[in-house]
Amino acid sequence: MYIIKVVNAYAALLALMDQELPYKDAFKIATLKRKLQPHAEFFSKKESELVKTYAETNEKGVVWTGKGKFRLRPGAEEEYTRRRLELCAVEVEEEFQEIEIQMPEKIRPIHIEALEGFVKFREG
User: Fold this and answer.
1) Which of 26, 49, 61, 82 has its CB surrounded by the most CB atoms within 10 Å?
2) DSSP classification of residue 122
3) CB atoms within 10 A of CB 115
4) How many degrees, rounded to 5, is the angle at CA 74 between CA 72 and CA 78?
5) Threshold 0.70, pTM exceeds
6) At a CB cut-off of 8 Å and minimum separation 6, what does 20 contact?
7) Contact at 8 Å (CB) between 1 and 104?
8) Looking at beta carbons, which pairs linking 24-31 to residues 24 or more positions away fall under 8 Å?
9) Longest dimension (CA), the chain
10) How far apart are CA 26 and CA 77, in angstroms?
11) In 22-121, alpha helices (H)
12) Residue 119 CB partners (closer than 8 Å, separation 6+)
């Protein structure tokens, strides 16, 4: 499994952490989040290193153009894109057991997609 799949699932779990769920489901979500967290932290660290390497900087550091957005140094786009794709394609060898929880009252479609293979939603 590619690390980007794990990172996306981790982000979706963070969004679910704010919802009130039955205790058993909340426990399963929290446990799965803890299992994915080291992989998400690794990805975040490596992605930050890429940003520092390829981003345009000024006296304050990286030139940020918005939340999570930055300006690349001239001529760095191709190399940054290649290196980031390589990072996203890092294989995670750990197997994660899919959990089953009750469908939350509300959830974004992007989170349903990200949780595929990690969380199975049941009605009622």
Assistant:
1) 26
2) E
3) 25
4) 70
5) yes
6) 26
7) no
8) 24/101, 25/101, 25/102, 28/99, 28/100, 28/101, 29/99, 29/101, 29/119, 31/99
9) 55
10) 41
11) 23-54, 77-88, 109-115
12) 9, 13, 29, 32, 98, 99, 100, 101
Residue 17, helix vs strand vs coil: coil
Which residues, other chains included, contact 11 with Cβ-Cβ below 8 Å and sequence gap of 6+? 40, 114
Task: At 86, list the tokens.
Answer: 């390589």
Beta-carbon contacts of 41 under 8 Å, excluding residues fewer than 6 positions away, are none
The two structure tokens encoding residue 46: 């490596």
Q: For residues 111 and 82, give the distance between their C-alpha atoms in angstroms, rounded to a whole number.
A: 26
Tens-place pLDDT, residues 7-16? 999 999 999 9
Q: Within its chain, how far is the Cα of 124 from the centroid? A: 28
Helix, strand, coil percentages in the chain from 3-state DSSP, rounded to 5? 50, 15, 30
